[in-house]
Design brief:
heterodimer, A: 341 residues, mainly alpha, Topoisomerase I, Chain A, domain 4, B: 11 strands
């Protein structure tokens, strides 16, 4: 990247980062009504969102579109392996559509209903959405998906489905697992310094997913230690293979938490439910990304951190606004925001 | 030469529900209606009467598309009449195709699984080859030992390291004995009491185990033969399913034919799903039609509709101009040039269609830049070869070639020889300065015409201020002509007095004032914007005019290239001379011909079209009955 591009990207990142809404601020929004929330979002981010009473998905689409527009701007100075890495990272958004499609077809939901749940990702769309919606049965859809860029991910998901039936968590976890393995693979082609910095941010995310999946596999699905470990994704910052193998052999959640390395042991010491743990782990992984965005000089890891933080912001806002539109009470919305964490 | 798109009228048709389909069919047969969505009418007529029909049509069309991809030869439409297709007919056929597709999809899934299985067996056979040199009783792998369990098989390389670590949590071990093409061939062994747990784990890792048949006890070579037999059987089964698939398609050929015909007949009404609005049995359809078709539409609808209807025609309002589709006048000769114009953009409804002017100036410029009797004749004759497949290339090629021949006579040039044919005027090399000046004059004329067209387009679109005061309007034209006059006075009379200054400054002041009124923002920002835009206007006029120097440059270049060929040929013997002249001429025709063709197009697009042509027109896409 040229010196000019670096300055341009650095300035862009600083401006965009100043508009991010923090996790604490988002939690405070729960007490506000929908109009006040949108006003606050406008004041902080500068974006004005319209509400279409007849189409509750409209605001979700707008939130995603604004974020994708920003990513397009951020990606401009990158080329080669760096650009490929970010293009792959942004596929995370399309995985949401992929999961909706697979779940929908396996649950026998009508195509028009599935279509309503999909988000238009504009130029980031790789999936042949119309052809997928026109499939008559889930296996026809999987065959079509296997011919797309998501072929590998879908084959893993198919295997998981055939092994465990229509379990949404396992299906989603299988898709996310493959995504992270591929993302780490793409990171290998970055310059050493960039890869190291990016891995630190990615590591926080991987620790979070691995720990929560491990707890679920072992104590909700009662899978064996070996299989639970096998189904985890590539390793992160603190929870390395040896650590995870040791944790997989524990017999209860409490034992696992007691055996966790710091800071996870301290963070999760008093928490009992997995959904609360999810929220804490997400908050911690986002704080790692925020540190990289605001305090580190490496542009690649700052860009990646911005994408991570912005994606979380979009997800939280979507859950919050949806909750308000459906008239849920504040506690329920808080729970829902924790659930999407 | 300067036509505008055909005059359009807005049509609104109120009719009863039962007549909507016959009306769609009648309009589709005429091919004159560009349907229009109208949100205002949607407030009153809130229903979409064709929406359900479209949904069924869409499902049927999608299934037909999927199934017909298995046809070896595409079906030919056999629609003889334009009978109306009922919703019931579509639904019945859709159910039939749904069942047929379910059978096909099931067979496809079986074939996919079988393919996967065959792939796995081939991998195992490959594994087994590694044992072939050993005198080993593989029957041991089948025997379930009381204490030890051994499995041989394959696992994808990407899953291997995680699987190895996971297995270390059990008392099993895994060893790779061969790796190839992303597949690891492995032996897994461990205590029998953990076999269930490990089996589950291996399955998740996509481990494919080598199954030793019950009756088998022997060497690897015998097991290899067994695997070969399995592959043969699997292949035979797949071929059987492929045959079943072909037979299934063949048996349903008639059904597919009728689906295709029905879809063609149903398309006109189905394609109106988003524009046809209705309420309580009343249906409304709106669109744009060529004004000349009004009478035909009245007559056809009167004949085809059973119930009374109301038809309203109106001229487009000025604020609707952007949404009125542009239908260009058809011309056999101009068609390829219209295609090139559309590459830049379609003329807006009230804009001039520049195809005629474009064709004339393009052909003339090509001749000027590539003037040679012989080369032009070759291009014209070679273009004739493409007549059947690409008639557009032939038309452009013949016209450009003939222009080249004409200017060849003007320059006295034949296959690069400058003294064989007497020049009607002179060879460009005789007085390059005069040729360059003429090119500038040509360019100035070209820009003036482009400016006049822009003014005409502004007036036609009702943009009166733009027409008078903008850089592309009358003020802009005044500035250009004054600047040209000023440049002439400086160059040839060495003077630029108060008259020239006033002539240049006055239109420029009008342009700047207009830009000032158009700009917004703070004072400094407005000053900056107006200054930059004013400067840009001056620079673009100067650079645009000088761009046409290439017309002269290429005519000189053409002669220079020929001279270079002759210079090389002159150094060789008679055979070498002939070959060099021949190859040199081919080189000039192909390479320089292509470059000149592109340069002409560039001048047309950037110095012509961009000055007067928005290219924002909407294509006229009529409702059609296609067979």
């Amino acid at each position: 990247m040229s010196g000019f591009s670096s300055v341009y990207l650095g300035t862009r990142l600083t401006v965009l980062a100043s508009r991010l809404i923090s996790f604490e601020q988002l939690i405070d929004f729960i007490e506000l009504d929908l109009e006040q929330i949108l006003l606050q979002v406008k004041q902080r981010s500068g974006y004005d969102y319209d509400i279409d009473g007849s189409n509750p998905r409209w605001i979700e689409a707008q939130l995603t579109h604004r974020a994708l527009d920003e990513f397009l701007i951020l990606l401009r100075p990158f080329s080669g392996s760096e650009r490929r890495f970010f293009q792959f990272a942004i596929r995370w958004f399309e995985l949401v559509n992929l999961k909706v499609l697979i779940r929908g077809k396996f649950s026998g939901i009508d195509s028009s209903e599935i279509e309503q749940q999909l988000i238009d990702l504009r130029s980031f769309t790789d999936l042949p959405i119309n052809r997928l919606l026109e499939t008559d049965d889930p296996y026809e859809m999987l065959r079509l998906l296997e011919t797309t860029a998501y072929g590998g991910i879908v084959r893993q998901a198919r295997r998981m489905y055939e092994e465990h039936g229509n379990d949404l968590f396992l299906l989603d976890a299988s898709i996310d697992r493959s995504f992270f393995i591929d993302l780490k693979h793409h990171a290998r082609f970055l310059r050493e310094e960039d890869a190291t910095n990016v891995r630190q941010v990615m590591g926080g995310l991987l620790d979070r997913f691995n720990l929560l999946w491990l707890l679920r596999y072992r104590f909700s699905y009662e899978l064996s230690p070996a299989k639970s470990f096998y189904l985890l994704t590539t390793t992160g910052n603190r929870l390395h293979s040896a650590e995870l193998m040791r944790l997989a052999q524990m017999d209860s959640t409490e034992e696992v938490i007691a055996a966790l390395p710091e800071p996870y042991q301290r963070l999760l010491a008093r928490i009992r439910s997995i959904s609360d743990m999810e929220m804490v782990m997400e908050y911690y992984s986002l704080s790692i990304a925020a540190r990289a965005l605001y305090r580190r000089p490496n542009l690649l890891s700052r860009t990646f951190s911005y994408i991570v933080l912005r994606e979380a912001e979009v997800r939280f806002l979507q859950a919050l606004i949806k909750g308000k539109q459906l008239g849920f009470d504040n506690d329920l919305i808080k729970q829902a925001m924790g659930a999407v964490a | 030469m300067l036509a505008t798109p055909l005059e359009m009228r807005k049509v609104g048709l109120y009719m009863v529900d039962a007549d909507a389909q016959p009306a769609a069919m009648a309009l589709a047969r005429m091919g004159v209606l560009h349907p229009l969505e109208d949100s205002a009418i949607g407030q009153v007529l809130q229903d979409y009467p064709a929406a359900f029909y479209y949904a069924v049509y869409h499902d049927l069309n999608s299934r037909f598309g999927k199934i017909s991809s298995f046809l070896k030869t595409p079906l030919q439409p056999t629609v003889e009449s334009d009978e109306l297709v009922t919703l019931g007919q579509l639904q019945v056929l859709d159910r039939q195709l749904k069942q047929l597709w379910a059978q096909i999809s099931a067979l496809e899934e079986q074939i996919r699984r079988q393919n996967e299985k065959v792939g796995a067996i081939r991998q195992l056979a490959n594994s087994l080859q590694k044992f072939s040199s050993l005198d080993l009783d593989l029957g041991r792998l089948r025997r379930r030992g009381k204490f030890l369990r051994i499995s041989v098989g394959t696992v994808p390389a990407e899953n291997f390291s995680q699987l190895r670590r996971a297995l270390s949590l059990t008392q099993f071990m895994i060893k790779v004995f061969y790796s190839s093409e992303g597949i690891n061939h492995v032996v897994v062994f461990g205590p029998s009491q953990q076999r269930e747990e490990v089996h589950d784990l291996l399955q998740s890792a996509d481990f494919r185990g080598l199954t030793v048949p019950e009756e088998f006890s022997g060497s690897p070579a015998r097991l290899q033969a067994d695997l070969d037999r399995q592959i043969e059987q699997a292949d035979a089964r797949m071929q059987q399913w492929q045959r079943e698939l072909s037979e299934l398609i063949k048996a349903n050929q008639a059904c597919l034919q009728s689906a295709q015909d029905l879809l063609l007949q149903a398309r006109p009404y189905a394609s109106l799903a988003t524009v046809l609005r209705g309420k309580g049995g009343l249906v409304y359809l709106q669109g744009w039609v060529p004004a000349q078709s009004e009478q035909q539409i009245r007559q056809q609808l009167a004949e085809q509709l059973t119930f009374p209807f109301q038809l309203e025609f109106s001229d487009p309002e000025q604020q609707e101009f952007d949404s009125v589709p542009s239908l260009l006048k058809k011309s056999w000769l101009l068609r390829p040039f219209q295609g090139l114009v559309k590459n830049f953009g379609l003329p807006g409804y009230r804009e001039v269609d520049p195809s005629g002017l474009f064709a004339l100036s393009y052909v003339l410029m090509f001749g000027m830049m590539f003037g040679d009797i012989g080369h032009g004749a070759v291009i014209a004759l070679a273009s004739l070869m493409f007549y059947r497949r690409y008639p557009g290339i032939t038309i452009v090629g013949v016209l450009a070639g003939m222009s080249s021949v004409g200017f060849g006579f003007v320059y006295g040039s034949l296959f690069g020889y400058e003294h064989v044919v007497p020049a009607l005027w002179m060879s460009p090399m005789q007085d390059p300065v005069q040729v360059l000046l003429l090119a500038v004059l040509w360019g100035a004329g070209f820009i003036v015409i482009a400016n006049l067209l822009a003014i005409r387009n502004f007036f036609a679109a009702g943009q009166i201020d733009q027409a008078w005061y903008s850089g592309k309007g009358i003020a802009g034209l005044g500035f250009y002509l004054a600047a040209f006059y000023g440049a002439y006075q400086v160059t040839f009379n060495n003077q630029f007095g108060w008259l020239e200054s006033v002539l240049v400054a006055l239109p420029m002041a009008l342009i700047v004032h207009f830009q000032w009124r158009q700009s917004s923002g703070g004072l400094a920002e407005r000053i900056l914007v107006v200054f930059i835009e004013g400067l840009e206007h001056i620079i673009s006029n100067v650079s645009g005019t000088l761009s046409f120097l290439r017309v002269a440059a290429f005519s000189l270049n053409h002669i220079a290239l020929a001279a270079a060929v002759f210079a090389i040929a002159g150094m060789l013997d008679s055979f070498g001379h002939v070959v060099t002249v021949l190859l040199g001429n081919i080189f000039i025709i192909v390479l320089e011909g292509a470059i000149v063709a592109i340069q002409c197009l560039r001048l047309e697009y950037y110095e012509g079209f961009s000055r007067f042509f928005s290219g924002k027109g909407r294509a006229f896409e009529p409702l059609k009955f296609e067979t």
